[in-house]
Design brief:
It is built from 15 helices and 22 strands. It has 482 residues and is of the alpha/beta class. A seven-stranded mixed β-sheet has the order 1-2-6-5-3-4-7, sandwiched between helices. A six-stranded antiparallel β-sheet has the order 17-22-21-20-19-18. Strand 8, helix 7 and strand 9 form a beta-alpha-beta unit. Helix 1 packs across helix 4, helix 9 runs parallel beside helix 10 and helix 9 crosses helix 12. The mean pLDDT is 92.
């Protein structure tokens, strides 16, 4: 059974009732409990305390109760939230209260049929690969039978309310009073996730008008992946347009990622959000530090960092690589392509969709411009770059990885009328052209997907690059589904 349990970039995920079962949850919980107990032996400064949260997916609460039972039976003190909560809240409480770790039952932005098991280490960050490797090694040592028929006294745990400390932190860090005074309309899309009404609640009671859509619990997420990007955010775009709103804000399934729309109902991708936040932190808050980009991130932000004289770091895709640097270096801000952003302003070196929604609104309003106007101002200073991505559904994860390796070993000299100047292979295969635009191929490690990314100096070029990338895959022998 444990052979099915493999940790990816942020936890173990599987299809509910097929891979993600109570038996497998028990095995992972036993292995994680043993690792937490070893951590406590090795670091006496940490408390015997674990926070457990869950999102709104099918059986999320029931799975989390099972985890709480297992961990408490092993002698760990467990705090289980009494309702679904944003993943960043769990991370915050773990670090704030010096806990040994945390667990969140969530599959983040994955399809509705998935659930997941995220581990948070004592610093509030997602568990490193080295850490999850230890968990996987322990899986073969775990015995699910040991947890059958546990006596009641062995499964006592605390049931707690959502964290007031987390709410207070946001109220102190973001200028909520100023945001409430804005005479604007803002639309918030929680995508049926744990973001719920948090952003609206922070902003209630002032001049600003906030309307939240898709804040209700729906375990199917309306039949979409709760990922805050297009086309999933079409309802948000329509609401922004119909209400002539200042902007739209969105959070994903477990509220650690942020999405946005400008006043025209046009999607603001992560690259532009990162550029806006970096611009704000430097120009208005006079902050400094390193800038971290994942392998699929923007040339625009690279040029901004260079102009400001900030050290630039490039890491593989996955926020844990950014978080690792934030723990070791003086990092101002870092972002991954999939809408995850962390900054020096936050208490934890982690993504936070609720916090970043409010910070983005604060940043844009500080320049007394509409979102599209601020983006044009940044383009004017640092150069205009545009970005998009497509996901091709293919036969298997192995097929995507095989194609990426083929492009790496035998790259085209030219694609879409552009000469390939450089090839990078930090995470996937990236073809860089003479004008600094690029095309990246990357296979998913867990899903039958080939992701193709592009950034160029015009929207038209991005579109044609992606089309050329798709044709390159379809023209290969590997495109044939086995």
């Amino acid at each position: 059974m444990s052979s099915k349990i493999k940790f990816g970039t942020d936890g173990w995920r599987g299809v509910i009732a097929r891979d993600f079962t109570f038996e497998n949850i028990t095995l992972v919980s036993l292995a994680t409990a043993d690792q937490f107990l070893e951590d406590l032996k090795n670091d006496k400064s940490k408390k015997n305390l674990v926070y457990i949260g869950y999102d709104r997916r099918f059986l999320g609460k029931e799975f989390s109760i099972r985890v709480a039972e297992i961990l408490s039976s092993k002698g760990l003190n467990v705090n289980l939230y009494n309702i679904d909560v944003p993943t960043p809240m769990v991370s915050y409480d773990v670090k704030k209260n010096n806990a040994v770790g945390g667990i969140v039952i969530t599959a983040s932005h994955n399809p509705p049929e998935f659930s997941g098991f995220k581990i948070k280490q004592a610093d509030g960050c997602s568990a490193s690969k080295e850490y999850t490797d230890k968990i996987e090694k322990r899986l073969c040592e775990s015995d699910v039978r040991a947890c059958h028929g546990m006596p009641q006294q062995a499964v006592k745990y605390n049931v707690i309310d959502p964290s007031q400390d987390y709410i207070d932190f946001i109220n102190k860090t973001i200028d909520i009073k100023k945001l409430k005074s804005l005479n604007e309309t803002v639309i918030v899309d929680s995508m049926n996730g744990t973001g719920g009404n948090y952003v609206e609640d922070f902003l209630s009671g002032g001049n600003i008008k906030v309307k939240t859509i898709r804040s209700n619990i729906d375990v199917t997420f309306g039949g979409i992946n709760p990922e805050p990007m297009m086309p999933q955010l079409t309802p948000l775009s329509e609401e922004v347009t119909s209400h002539r709103a200042y902007m739209g804000l969105a959070t994903d399934g477990d509220a650690d990622r942020v999405g946005a729309m400008n006043e025209k109902g046009e999607y603001i991708n992560t690259h532009k959000i990162l550029a806006i936040l970096l611009y704000y932190l430097v120009e208005k808050k006079k902050m400094s530090g390193g800038v971290v980009l994942t392998f699929s991130q923007s040339v625009l932000v690279k040029k901004m960092a260079e102009k400001y004289g900030f050290k630039l770091y490039e890491v593989p895709i996955g926020f844990k690589h950014i978080a690792d640097l934030m723990l070791k270096e003086d990092i101002l801000i870092g972002a991954e392509e999939a809408n995850g952003i962390g900054s020096k302003l936050h208490f934890i070196p982690e993504r936070d969709g609720v916090f970043n929604s409010l910070l983005l609104l604060e940043a844009i309003s500080a320049f007394n411009m509409k979102p599209s106007e601020l983006i044009e101002k940044i383009h004017g200073e640092f150069g205009a770059f545009y970005y998009d991505r497509i996901d091709l559904h293919i036969g298997s994860p192995a097929l995507g990885k095989e194609f990426v390796e083929k492009v790496k070993n035998n790259p085209p000299k030219e694609i879409n009328g552009q000469k390939v100047k450089e090839i990078k292979t930090l995470d996937g295969t990236k073809l860089i052209f003479e004008d600094e635009s690029w095309l990246l191929f990357r296979g998913s490690g867990t899903e039958p997907l080939l992701r193709i990314y592009s950034e160029a100096r015009s929207k038209e070029k991005v579109s044609s690059n992606l089309k050329a990338g798709k044709e390159l895959f379809e023209g290969s022998r590997l495109a044939v589904t086995p």
